[in-house]
């Protein structure tokens, strides 16, 4: 592709937690990301900072309306928008009609917390937007890579038990997304915590997810509401080679995967970092947030393990996912959680040239998606417990 015809791509949020990890991987990551390096890359962030190693930084600007975003797209003749800053997905999709757009989750402009965090995902499934162009919604870790890992895990379980890789043949009754984040700041700031949410990713979004009055999951296509907030009860589930006690948290991927797997139960079981749990133990009060990634802390130690757990009535449980150590993430100037999200962003971005319409990750080439993520995070880990007894979500409550 010549310089005259290179795609003009706008990356919004390039100095944030995910954005800085994306930039590091673009600058010196695996060769498979070379097609992205050939973009004419424009960069926008709400805060000032050093000049980037690649691309052209636009003057700093806080985007908070459809009109601002549309004007920016027109002024700079943007062909492709990659949002890692949490812009409003509906407004961004409208602004990029006939062009290309990728986001990490279904965010809205900053405002009052939403009680029903699955509402936008349900709207996306029930009334899919007919927007021209190529658009990928929810390309991070979860949503994102976990969506693709469902296919990987079904193929893995099918090969182990000699069945077809379908929910019916594998007798699946549940698919759980499970995550155990063991990240902590170094040195451990337990004696001097932020008085607001301290998290390994967006403290604002983390607090919103954990703080809804009643949590939700999907049961055979229907939304189920618990009688408690996410952080007020723990549920037991496998995450890699251990059983964890985590919170059931509403998440976009549950709805889109539920549309594809209408006969199963879907939930996200999340054991967040210890600093986040300490904030919850203090009553989850608003306050000064803590960002557990460089440069906000000197460094991080620990690991983040995240994947999908297939639960079968005949073949026990199989977990497939990634385990990322903060020591490896430090080489990219980030923490384990944000490196996982950045890998998912790049994997989705690589497929934007090849699709039409509005898609979530399970509608992409999921084999390629997982391979591209694995090029950053290492090989997928799989743990099979063929003797695990069926355990619907309510029975997992600790």
Counting DSSP E segments of at least 2 residues, the number of strands comes to 20
Average predicted confidence as pLDDT? 94
| Largest sheet, strands/sense/barrel | 9 strands, mixed
Instruction: Please give the share of residues in helix.
Output: 25-40%
Strand content: 25-35%
> What is Rg?
20 Å
From the spread of the alpha carbons, the general shape counts as globular
> How far do the termini sit from each other?
56 Å
Please state the structural category: alpha/beta
> How many individual helices?
12
- Report low-confidence residues grouped into runs of 5 or more: none
For this entry, give a set of tags:
alpha/beta, 12 helices, 9-stranded mixed β-sheet, 398 residues, single chain
Could you characterize what this model shows?
The chain is built from twelve helices and 20 strands. By secondary structure, it is α/β, with parallel strands linked by helices. Strands 7, 10, 11, 12, 13, 14, 17, 18 and 20 form a nine-stranded mixed β-sheet that branches. Helix 4 links the parallel strand 4 and strand 5. The longest helix has 17 residues. The radius of gyration is 20 Å and the shape is globular. About 50% of the residues are buried.
